[in-house]
């Protein structure tokens, strides 16, 4: 069974998609190329949003678009070649506007977050490709459970906040809040390793159709954006303690 902690990659993802024939199957190189293209779309739209303050109004619509696309692709992976690029562009608008606002409050923080994010990504990728990071079923299940727990925790936090309940231990800069952010960022980073493994094994199985390259790129982007946001959140807490 192929398993990943990424909520958009699970044991059923590639089972429900059947390849056509020959070169119409998913390949690792194809997924890498589409991942790079998706990342370029994110960076391009983020740069645009960063330099155009009028696009701040696109933040909420961007969040809605990404949520709708994520839900749609969870049920219809064959739409990935069309929706994954749109998701990347919308995600870029969100990251651009949030990063700009954060940079205004804490100058230099965005570059730190970007550097750390890609540094972690590169180290994990090298570790995985070199065989230093070995995966076991128990480890996969542990990360999957931790990811599900974090998602549930965030959902509960959001719901109670709607009723005016303060969650300072999550949003504040206490040592507990910082510790929580470190744990969440670590879980997000470990999900990248699971995604590397999941995509590689799915590609090597020669059983997934070509459009799943876009779906794999979309799934990897989801985790990478999550990691960036958690690192940015952590850096904000650390910087606020210096004020």
Question: Briefly, what is this?
Answer:
By secondary structure, the protein is an all-alpha fold. 73% of the residues lie in helices and 0% in strands.
| Mean of all residue-level pLDDT scores | 85
| Residues in helix, % | over 70%
Tell me the total number of β-strands. Answer: 0
- Rg for CA atoms: 18 Å
Shape: globular
Sheet-strand content, in percent, reads under 5%
For the biggest sheet, the summary is: none
Give the count of helical stretches.
8
Helix and strand composition category? mainly alpha
Low-confidence stretches: 1-5
Task: Give the count of structural domains.
Answer: 1
What is the string of SSEs from the N terminus onward?
HHHHHHHH
Distance between the termini: 50 Å
Q: What do these coordinates show?
A:
There is one protein chain. The chain has 243 residues and is mostly helical. The chain has eight helices and no strands. The chain has helices at 28-51, 59-75, 80-105, 109-130, 137-161, 168-171, 175-204, 212-240. α7 (175-204) packs antiparallel against α8 (212-240). Residues 1-5 have low confidence and may be disordered.
